[in-house]
Design brief:
Elements lengths: L1 H22 L3 H17 L3 H28 L19 H8 L2 H4 L3 E5 L6 H14 L4 E5 H13 L3 H8 L4 E7 L6 H14 L4 E6 L6 H5 L2 H13 L1 E5 L26
Parallel strand pairs: 1-4, 1-5, 2-3, 3-4
Helix pairs in contact: 1-2, 2-3, 3-6, 7-8, 7-9, 9-11
């Protein structure tokens, strides 16, 4: 009789948990409570241990759900994770990228710059670090340098550039892909400089470029603007130079692309 009463009491308790979980808009609490109840009794858990285990599963589920929302909102061209990267061509960078993927650079408002010829995996690594950042709870935005300038130009024409820059500062990470693929006019270069300056020592940037820093003056049309921009970017930054042939050309009988120069980032 006592056993039957215990089962009835447990059933009623779970019904109450289902109602409370619904009221809290946390239905997974009820699911976890039901799933863990028998194990908790058999293992002799205390009430505190049982409650902690149930809430731990709710928090983990919410974090996972939130990360997926942040990843979708980031605007990645494609979802490529660090785990999917082919390290055969860049084994020396593996440890440094793994350290960056832990997210420490974001809490320190540090930047990451990935330099190298086309096809060496810069965008893949930038995207992978962005996805890792989303899993660490950071809001992320991804776009090419051209798209960022277009976005800032539209805000400038609408008279809301300062508002847009302030809004972007609320993102823990902004990724600027393909710096240097197309040159900017003076006004566009100035807008890009304002984006970099607004985040300096406040929030992180990841930038990818096919050019060494010495070539950025030609991209932005002004050596002084480029120098001031680079100064702010690299003051607190990890700079990785990826070398080698494009992975897209592997097994194609083509070793190099025209006009590709691999130089040290300090050049």
């Amino acid at each position: 009789m006592a056993t039957a009463k215990s089962k009835t009491d447990a059933t009623e308790a779970l019904k109450q948990l289902t109602y409370l979980a619904s009221a809290l808009k946390a239905p997974r609490i009820a699911e976890a409570a039901a799933r863990l109840a028998d194990h908790a009794r058999d293992a002799g858990w205390t009430h505190e241990e049982y409650l902690a285990a149930v809430l731990d599963r709710e928090v983990a589920a919410r974090n996972a759900s939130g990360a997926q929302l942040r990843i979708r909102a980031a605007g990645f061209a494609s979802r490529k994770t660090i785990e999917e990267f082919d390290w055969d061509a860049h084994p020396a960078a593996r440890q440094q990228i793994a350290a960056l993927a832990s997210g420490g650079f974001l809490t320190e408002a540090r930047n990451v710059v990935l330099l190298g010829p086309p096809g060496t995996g810069k965008t893949h690594l930038a995207t992978g670090l962005g996805i890792a950042a989303a899993h660490h709870g950071h809001r992320v935005l991804f776009a090419t340098a051209v798209d960022w300038v277009t976005r800032l130009s539209e805000a400038h024409r609408a008279g809301r550039l300062s508002h847009e820059l302030a809004r972007l500062r609320r993102y823990g990470l902004i990724i600027v892909d393909e710096v240097g693929y197309l040159p900017f006019e003076q006004d566009a270069a100035n807008l890009f400089f304002q984006l970099v300056s607004s985040r300096y020592e406040h929030a992180s940037l990841i930038l990818t470029s096919n050019l060494p820093f010495s070539g950025w003056g030609g991209v932005f049309g002004d050596q002084a603007v480029a120098a001031a921009m680079i100064d702010r970017i690299v003051h607190h930054a990890d700079v990785l130079t990826l070398k080698g042939a494009s992975y897209r050309l592997r097994n194609r009988g083509i070793d190099t692309l025209p006009s590709i120069r691999t130089q040290d980032p300090a050049d």
